[in-house]
Amino acid sequence: MSSVTVRVPAKVNVQLSVGPLREDGFHDLVNVFHAVSIFDEVTAKESEAITVSVSGKWSNQVPVDDGNLAIKAARALAKHAGRGYGADLLIQKDIPVAGGMAGGSADAAGALVACNELWGLGLPFEDLMEIAADLGSDVPFSLLGGTAVGTGRGEQLSELPTGGVFHWVFALADGGLSTASVYAECDRLREASAAEVPWPQLDDSLMEALGTGDAYALGAHLSNDLQEAALSLRPELGPTLEAGRQHGALGAIVSGSGPTCAFLAIDALHARDLARGLTTTGAAHTAVPAHGPVAGATLL
Q: What is the rounded distance in angstroms from the CA atom of residue 49 to the CA atom of residue 8?
């Protein structure tokens, strides 16, 4: 096989609860991931070395050196296999870069699945998940897809049943936000307030809403402990969230570390109308309807 292509989804966090800062610099999380229908495609082609190139909407914002997470994923897979493999990785980007939707993690997951197939390794899904967990907290979910709760740093996953399809609109912002800078701002704001930080707990009402497919209940229970920090760094996101609410969103939230804003809609028609309203009023320059849950990294 000389070429393999894998499709990988973006994610939104419908709950992101961040515990106190640990001594190792991380936080314990309760992170409910939900995969949505905005996709990157990762193609792996035979080559002597591991390289990456990027095309699509956000290509000029993606590193193509050793800092690219897809390259790190391919190298980790080769190391696990104990051989010196090569692959040209071609990434077609539709997921925003540094947008809080796990675009880099999705590409890493795509590289793992594509190279596993290209190199004929035949590694089971469980092995790929172990490698993914060492690459980053969001990479295992990009492999898994669907809806799942992540604990620890977010990489320990348990699948969650969902009772239907949920419709979303994602307002894409100019520029990105560094995940590390948003966590640092969260810690700073917490230290300044001197408030006790509770241990993160899964929201039972949110779980019920997901399980029954109740979009109204889900919208009422969306939560993100990083939202205050993201708004502190990017205050212009506040009016975008409010505009979505005024256009009838069932829930409005910063996606992950931001700056993408996520709006839960009633149905597909409402999502299209909401996206149109956000762009025509200037609340967002780009608003993309999507649905979830969708599958994780998938061979095409």
A: 23
Active site residues: 11, 138
Quickly count: other Cβ atoms within 10 Å of residue 56's Cβ.
Answer: 14
What gap in Å lies between CA 63 and CA 175, rounded to an integer?
Answer: 15
The answer to whether the predicted template modeling score (pTM) of the entire model surpasses 0.70 is: yes
| DSSP annotation string for 54-77 | EEETTGGGS--STT-HHHHHHHHH
265 - beta bridge partners?
A: 167
Annotated binding site for ATP: 96-106
Alpha helical stretches, state H, the chain: 69-81, 103-118, 125-135, 139-144, 179-193, 204-212, 215-221, 227-233, 237-246, 268-280
Beta bridge partners of 16: 31, 224
d(CA 124, CA 131): 11
Q: What residues are paired with 11 via a beta bridge?
A: 35
- Per the CB < 8 A criterion, the answer to whether 263 and 168 are in contact is yes
Q: What CA–CA distance (Å, rounded) separates 296 from 8?
A: 6
Closest CA to 7 of 110, 97, 105: 110
Q: Which tokens is 170 given?
A: 């994602």
Q: Is the dihedral of CA 292, 122, 150, 63 positive or negative?
A: negative
* Residues 5, 131: Cα–Cα separation, whole Å: 20
79-138 pLDDT per residue, tens: 999 988 999 999 999 998 878 899 999 999 999 999 999 999 999 999 999 999 999 889
Buried b (16+ CB within 10 A) or exposed e, 12-37: bbbbbbbbebeeeeebbbbbbbbbbb
Map out the domains of the chain with their CATH numbers.
Answer: 3-160 (3.30.230.10), 166-292 (3.30.70.890)
pLDDT digits (tens, 9 = 90+) for 34-68: 999 999 999 999 999 999 999 998 788 898 999 99
